[in-house]
Design a protein that fits this description.
By secondary structure, the chain is α+β, with helices and mostly antiparallel strands. The chain has 19 helices and 43 strands. Among the domains are: 120 residues, Topoisomerase II, domain 5 (Alpha-Beta Complex); 79 residues, Gyrase A, domain 2, CATH 3.30.1360.40; 330 residues, Neuraminidase (6 Propeller).
C-alpha cells in the first residue's frame, strides 16, 4: 500500500458533517458572534481596543491611520479579512450606533443615511476617553492572557473594564442556532442600578427598575409602551415599540410634520425613500412634499402636508407604514463562563459585579506584591543606613560585586535582593535627608500593605471599591437620557392620535364634504350679513351643516334610503373657502344617489332608535344597534315607494315627540310611541298627510316640555316658537300652522329645536355662514312671519341651519364702527345693508 493511501481514513459522511458543523458552530458562538458578559465585547472588538492600547493610540495622543491599526490587529491577533476588522472599528466610532463610542475617529466614518465610510487609508483613529475605562489596570495582572493564533504573542481573554459596556452599549449578533440583541442603556441609570445591587444583594428586578427605567438609544426616539421593557428586564427577552420623534409645525397656509429623531438602527435615506414610494402609490395620502434639512446641528426631515390634511392622521400612517415606528426585539444573550446564556437585568449586573470583584482582588494582590517587594528593599536600606560605616568597609574589602553581596547577606542577614539593591544604591542616599525619605516611604508602604491586606480580607471593602469606582465613572461620563418613555401607552389606534374636539361638518348640494373647527367662527348679532363660510364652485352651495365630535361616527343617509358609516376624523379638514372632498371618495354611493341627512353618533345602544321621515310624509323607527355594522359600502336603511325620498333622520330613545314640517308652513306633532320599531328594510307608516304639490322639509324630535322650535324661511326670516304651541295630534294628521309663509319669507326650509344656551349657525346657498345667539331671536307665535335673521345678497337663499354651544360676544375691536359709533343690534334695523364683518375665522 502506498504512503498516500495509508494517510486516508474512511469515515461516514454524516459523522464528519455533524462533527465539523458542531466545531464550526462552537467557533462562531464562542469566538465570533456573541459578546462576553463581563466586558460586553466580541473577540474582534476586544482585539481592536487592545491593539490600540499597544500602539499608544490614547485619547491624548495623535491620531494614526486606520490602516495602521487594522494591520496591527490582523498581524498579531485576528487572522481574518481586513474589512471585518475595519467595519468593526468603524462601528465603535459611530455615535448613532453606540451610546458611548469607544473609538475616536477622524474622517468619513459613514452616516445615519447608510453612507459607507472612507477607505481605511484615508481615515484616522485613536481611543476615546471612555475606552480607557475598558483597559484600566490591565498591566496589573487583572485578567488572564492566552496565546494568539500562532502563539507568538499573548492577548487578553477579557478586559478589566470599569465601564459596564454590555449594558450601556448593548450588542447584536447572529450565531448558529441563536442570536443576541441587547439594547443600549443610560450610563447614569446603569451605575445607579449596580450600586443599588451592591448595597442590597437581594434587591428585586422591579426595585432595580426604579433606577434603570428602560433602554436608552443613541438616536433618541420614543419607547412607546412599557410592558415589553418589563418583560425583557424580568426574563431577558421582550419586544419594545420604538418611534421616531416628530412634531407638527404650522405656517399661515399649511402644516408640516418635522422628524427630529429616528428609531435605533433606522436608515434615514431609506426612510425618506419609503415615504416617497408610499405617497406615489397612495398608501399614504395628503403629503405634498418631503425634504431632508438635516445638517451638523441635527436631524430635520420636513414633510409638507396638503392644505386639507389632518397632521395626526398622516403621522399615524407614517408610524403604520414606515420605519418611523419599529419593533425592537430584545434577546439578552451573552457568554457566561464560555457558554451562551439568556440573562435578565439583575443577572447581567451580578455577572458584571462578579467580574469587577475579581479584577479588584487581582489588582490588589498585584499591588500588595509590589508593595511587599518595595518594603523588603526599604528594610534592607534601613539596615544598611543603620550600619553604614561597616557596610562601606565590607564593600571596600570585597574583591568583586558577587563577593560583596554574599558578605553583606552573611554579615547583616540580608536577602540577595536587598544586598543587590544596597550595592546599586547611590552615595547621595547616604545623606541624612535621604535617610528621612526612606523612612517615610517605608512607613507609607507599611500602611499601604495593611490597607491592601484589609481589602483582600473583606468582601465588603471590595464591593465598596467597586461602587466608588462606578461613582467616579458616572461623575465623569454620566449624562441624561436620550430616549423618552411613554409608560401608559396602549395598542394605539388612529383615534388615539386625534383630539376629540367639536367640528362643523358641511356638505354641499353637489356632494362635497369638509370639516372646520368650531373655534374658527365668532358670533354676530341678529341681522348681520356674515362672511364666506364655505367655497362655492359652479353654482354649488352648502346644503347641510351640523356639529359633531371628531371621534363620532357619521351615518350618511341618502335620498334612496341607504346608509353609510364613516368616522368624523376621516372627513378632510378645510378652510372656510375650501371646496372639500367629494363624498364619492368618502363613501361608496352611486353617482345618482345624494346624501340628504347625516347623523353623528358615539355608540349604538339597543334602546336607542333611528327615526326617519320621507318627503311624502312616511316615517319609520329602527333600532340604532342595527346600524353598528354598517361600513363605507353602505346598507339599506328603509324601503321607499316610487318617487319618494328620505329627507330626515334623528336618534331617539322611544319617548320623543315628533314634529314634521312642510314647505308650506304646516307642522304635525305626534308621539314617537305611535310608531312601532321596524327592520331596516321596512317601508314605514304615514306620519303626516300632505297634498301632492307639497313636501316634508324637516323633522324635529323633542323631549322637553319647555323646548323651543325655530322655523326659518328661505329668504332669511325666522322665529322662535314655544314647543307647546304646536298642538299634539295623531300621526297622519294635516298639522297646524308653523309659519305664515309669504313672498317676503319664502317657503319654509328648516325647522329645528333650539335652546337659549346655544348659538344658531345659518348657511346660505352662496356659502355664507352666520352665527348668532339663539337668545337674541324673538319668541313669537306660530301664525307669524318672524324677523330677519340674516341679510342675503340678491339671489342668495338659506340652505340649512344648525346649533353650536354659545360663545361670548366678539371683542370690541371686532365690532364695526360707522362715523365713530359702534353698530349694535339696537341700531341695525335703521342702517340698511351694514356689513358687520362678523364670523371671520380667527387667527
Amino acid at each position: 500500500m502506498s504512503l498516500t493511501s495509508e494517510r486516508i481514513l474512511p469515515v461516514l459522511m454524516e459523522d464528519e458533517m455533524r462533527n465539523s458543523y458542531l466545531d464550526y458552530s462552537m467557533s462562531v458562538i464562542v469566538s465570533r458572534a456573541l459578546p462576553d458578559v463581563r466586558d460586553g465585547l466580541k473577540p474582534v472588538h476586544r482585539r481592536i481596543l487592545y491593539a490600540m492600547y499597544g500602539l499608544g493610540l490614547l485619547p491624548n495622543r495623535a491620531y494614526k491611520k486606520s490602516a495602521r491599526l487594522v494591520g496591527e490587529v490582523l498581524g498579531k491577533y485576528h487572522p481574518h479579512g481586513d474589512s471585518s476588522v475595519y467595519d468593526a472599528m468603524v462601528r465603535l466610532a459611530q455615535p448613532w450606533s453606540l451610546r458611548y463610542p469607544l473609538v475616536d475617529g477622524q474622517g468619513n466614518y459613514g452616516s445615519v443615511d447608510g453612507d459607507p465610510p472612507a477607505a481605511m487609508r484615508y481615515t484616522e483613529t485613536r481611543m476615546s476617553h471612555i475606552a480607557m475605562e475598558m483597559l484600566r489596570d490591565i498591566e496589573k495582572n487583572t485578567v488572564n492572557f492566552r496565546g494568539n493564533f500562532d502563539d507568538s504573542l499573548e492577548e487578553p481573554t477579557v478586559l478589566p473594564n470599569v465601564l459596564p459596556a454590555l449594558l450601556v452599549n448593548g450588542a447584536g449578533g447572529i450565531a448558529v442556532g441563536m442570536a443576541t440583541n441587547i439594547p443600549p442603556h443610560n450610563l447614569t441609570e446603569i451605575v445607579n442600578g449596580i450600586q443599588a445591587l451592591i448595597e442590597n444583594a437581594n434587591i428585586t428586578i422591579p426595585e432595580l427598575m426604579a433606577h434603570v427605567s428602560a433602554p436608552d438609544f443613541p438616536t433618541g426616539g420614543i419607547i412607546y409602551g412599557y410592558e415589553g421593557v418589563k418583560e425583557a428586564f424580568m426574563t431577558g427577552r421582550g419586544k419594545i415599540l420604538l418611534r421616531g420623534k416628530a412634531t407638527v409645525e404650522a405656517t399661515r397656509t399649511k402644516e408640516t410634520i418635522v422628524i427630529t429623531e429616528l428609531p435605533y438602527q433606522v436608515n434615514k435615506a431609506n426612510l425618506i425613500e419609503k415615504i416617497a414610494e408610499h405617497v406615489r402609490h397612495k398608501v399614504i395620502e395628503d403629503i405634498s412634499d418631503i425634504r431632508d434639512e438635516s445638517d451638523r446641528d441635527g436631524m430635520r426631515i420636513v414633510i409638507e402636508l396638503k392644505r386639507d390634511a389632518t397632521p395626526m392622521v398622516v403621522l399615524n400612517n407614517l408610524f403604520k407604514h414606515t420605519q418611523l415606528q419599529v419593533t425592537f426585539g430584545i434577546i439578552m444573550l451573552a457568554l457566561v463562563d464560555g457558554r451562551p446564556r439568556v440573562l435578565n437585568l439583575k443577572e447581567m449586573m451580578e455577572e458584571f459585579v462578579k467580574h469587577r470583584n475579581e479584577v479588584v482582588v487581582r489588582r490588589t494582590r498585584f499591588e500588595l506584591d509590589a508593595a511587599e517587594k518595595r518594603a523588603h528593599i526599604l528594610e534592607g536600606f534601613i539596615i544598611a543606613l543603620d550600619n553604614i560605616d561597616e557596610v562601606i568597609q565590607t564593600i571596600k574589602a570585597s574583591p568583586d560585586t558577587p563577593t560583596a553581596s554574599i558578605r553583606l547577606q552573611e554579615r547583616f542577614g540580608l536577602s540577595e535582593i536587598q544586598a543587590k539593591a544596597i550595592l546599586e544604591m547611590r552615595l547621595q542616599r547616604l545623606t541624612g535627608l535621604e535617610r528621612d525619605k526612606i523612612m517615610n516611604e517605608y512607613r507609607d508602604i507599611i500602611r499601604t500593605i495593611e490597607r491592601l491586606k484589609a481589602i483582600l480580607a473583606s468582601k465588603e471593602l471590595q464591593l465598596q471599591i467597586i461602587s466608588e469606582e462606578l461613582a467616579e465613572l458616572k461623575k465623569k461620563y454620566g449624562d441624561k437620557r436620550l430616549t423618552e418613555i411613554v409608560y401608559d401607552a396602549r395598542d394605539f389606534t388612529l383615534e388615539d392620535m386625534i383630539a376629540n374636539e367639536d367640528v362643523i361638518v358641511t356638505i354641499s348640494r353637489k356632494g362635497f364634504i369638509k370639516r372646520t373647527t368650531v373655534t374658527n367662527y365668532r358670533r354676530q348679532n341678529r341681522g348681520g350679513r356674515g362672511a364666506s363660510g364655505a367655497g362655492t364652485y359652479d353654482d354649488d352651495y352648502v346644503e347641510q351643516v351640523f356639529l359633531a365630535a371628531t371621534h363620532n361616527f357619521l351615518l350618511f343617509f341618502t335620498d334612496r334610503g341607504r346608509v353609510f358609516r364613516v368616522k368624523v376624523y376621516d372627513i378632510p379638514e378645510g378652510s372656510r373657502n375650501a371646496k372639500g372632498r367629494s363624498l364619492a371618495n368618502v363613501i361608496e354611493k352611486s353617482n345618482d344617489e345624494r346624501v340628504t341627512v347625516t347623523l353623528a353618533v358615539s355608540d349604538f345602544p339597543d334602546n336607542n332608535f333611528i327615526f326617519m321621515a320621507t318627503e311624502k310624509g312616511t316615517v319609520k323607527k329602527t333600532s340604532l344597534s342595527e346600524f353598528e355594522s354598517v361600513r363605507a359600502n353602505g346598507k339599506i336603511a328603509l324601503g321607499l315607494d316610487e318617487g319618494d325620498r328620505l329627507i330626515s333622520a334623528r336618534v331617539t330613545d322611544g319617548s320623543f315627540d315628533i314634529i314634521l314640517g312642510s314647505n308650506v308652513g304646516l307642522a304635525c306633532r305626534f308621539r314617537e310611541g305611535d310608531v312601532r320599531a321596524m327592520g331596516r328594510g321596512a317601508t314605514g307608516v304615514i306620519g303626516m298627510r300632505i297634498d301632492d304639490d307639497e313636501k316634508i322639509i324637516s323633522m324635529v324630535a323633542i323631549k322637553r316640555s319647555d323646548a323651543q322650535v325655530i322655523v326659518v324661511g328661505k329668504n332669511g326670516y325666522g322665529k322662535r316658537t314655544n314647543y307647546e304651541d304646536f298642538r299634539l295630534t295623531k300621526r297622519g294628521a294635516k298639522g297646524v300652522i308653523s309659519m305664515n309663509v309669504t313672498e317676503k319669507t319664502g317657503e319654509v326650509v328648516a325647522i329645528m329645536e333650539v335652546q337659549d344656551t346655544e348659538d344658531l349657525v345659518v348657511m346660505s346657498t352662496g356659502g355664507v355662514l352666520i352665527r348668532q345667539h339663539v337668545k337674541d331671536i324673538r319668541i313669537i307665535g306660530r301664525n307669524t312671519q318672524g324677523v330677519r335673521l340674516v341679510r342675503l345678497d340678491e339671489g342668495d337663499l338659506i340652505a340649512d341651519i344648525t346649533t353650536v354651544p354659545h360663545e361670548e360676544d366678539v371683542p370690541e375691536e371686532d365690532e364695526t364702527l360707522i362715523d365713530g359709533e359702534t353698530i349694535t343690534a339696537a341700531t341695525i334695523e335703521t342702517i340698511p345693508d351694514v356689513d358687520l364683518g362678523l364670523i371671520e375665522p380667527t387667527e
